[in-house]
């Protein structure tokens, strides 16, 4: 059976968790407390950089969220979550990379620098730029790559629905707001969605434990 080492509030773990549910796969969850579990010898043996998520599939171990998603898509191709049309494939990859490289760091900055007005403004500007880009990519489609859920949703949908919990409204982005609401209704999102209370606890912990900030999401 597939085994996923994860932490529930990790936006790196959650896409893998969502994908396992969307694929209808049987799997075992191994919850990690990132205040020490990640540096235990048994875990370091499968995750040398002490990050989550880690996926173990029989004798194969995969680390790094995006690599794990690609592995699952190739190994368990039904239902298809990665299009093969060049345009659609490029859109999926753009959404994945912009989410991880542009949106997520800005969201983390908002949480971490809650009292620094200049950094808050910078983060909000970057987030708005990403949301504008995503709004334009959606056009009139249900999903980023057309009418079917893809890895773009699996990744971006792990972050964007959390923005309102951090004071970022989606009202100025009606297509993105409708897209987010469609995702939240899916069982895979319902089963993995942190509650507002859990997210507030996470934010408080993130701010007061600077030495573990780099590990709280990983």
TrEMBL record:
<dbReference type="InterPro" id="IPR036249">
    <property type="entry name" value="Thioredoxin-like_sf"/>
</dbReference>
<dbReference type="Pfam" id="PF13417">
    <property type="entry name" value="GST_N_3"/>
</dbReference>
<feature type="domain" description="GST C-terminal">
    <location>
        <begin position="85"/>
        <end position="216"/>
    </location>
</feature>
<dbReference type="InterPro" id="IPR004045">
    <property type="entry name" value="Glutathione_S-Trfase_N"/>
</dbReference>
<dbReference type="GO" id="GO:0004364">
    <property type="term" value="F:glutathione transferase activity"/>
</dbReference>
<feature type="domain" description="GST N-terminal">
    <location>
        <begin position="1"/>
        <end position="80"/>
    </location>
</feature>
<dbReference type="GO" id="GO:0016034">
    <property type="term" value="F:maleylacetoacetate isomerase activity"/>
</dbReference>
<dbReference type="Pfam" id="PF00043">
    <property type="entry name" value="GST_C"/>
</dbReference>
<dbReference type="GO" id="GO:0006559">
    <property type="term" value="P:L-phenylalanine catabolic process"/>
</dbReference>
<keyword id="KW-0808">Transferase</keyword>
<dbReference type="GO" id="GO:0006749">
    <property type="term" value="P:glutathione metabolic process"/>
</dbReference>
<dbReference type="InterPro" id="IPR010987">
    <property type="entry name" value="Glutathione-S-Trfase_C-like"/>
</dbReference>
<dbReference type="InterPro" id="IPR004046">
    <property type="entry name" value="GST_C"/>
</dbReference>
<protein>
    <submittedName>
        <fullName>Glutathione S-transferase</fullName>
    </submittedName>
</protein>
<dbReference type="InterPro" id="IPR036282">
    <property type="entry name" value="Glutathione-S-Trfase_C_sf"/>
</dbReference>
<dbReference type="InterPro" id="IPR040079">
    <property type="entry name" value="Glutathione_S-Trfase"/>
</dbReference>
């Amino acid at each position: 059976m597939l085994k996923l080492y994860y932490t529930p509030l990790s936006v790196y773990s959650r896409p893998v968790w969502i994908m396992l549910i969307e694929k209808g796969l049987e799997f075992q969850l191994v919850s990690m407390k990132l205040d020490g579990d990640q540096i235990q010898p048994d875990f370091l043996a499968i995750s040398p950089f002490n990050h989550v998520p880690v996926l173990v599939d029989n004798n194969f171990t995969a680390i790094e969220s995006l690599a794990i998603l690609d592995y699952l898509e190739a190994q368990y191709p039904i239902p298809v979550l990665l299009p093969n049309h060049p345009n659609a494939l490029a859109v999926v990859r753009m959404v994945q990379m912009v989410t991880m490289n542009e949106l997520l760091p800005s969201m983390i900055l908002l949480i971490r620098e809650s009292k620094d007005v200049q950094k808050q403004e910078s983060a909000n500007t970057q987030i708005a730029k990403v949301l504008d880009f995503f709004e334009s990519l959606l056009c009139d489609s249900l999903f980023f790559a057309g009418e079917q859920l893809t890895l773009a949703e699996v990744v971006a949908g792990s972050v964007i629905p959390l923005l309102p919990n951090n004071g970022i409204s989606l009202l100025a982005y009606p297509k993105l707001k409708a897209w987010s609401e469609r995702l939240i209704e899916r069982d895979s999102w319902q089963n993995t969605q942190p509650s507002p209370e859990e997210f507030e606890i996470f934010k408080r912990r993130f701010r007061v434990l600077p030495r573990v900030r780099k590990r709280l999401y990983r």
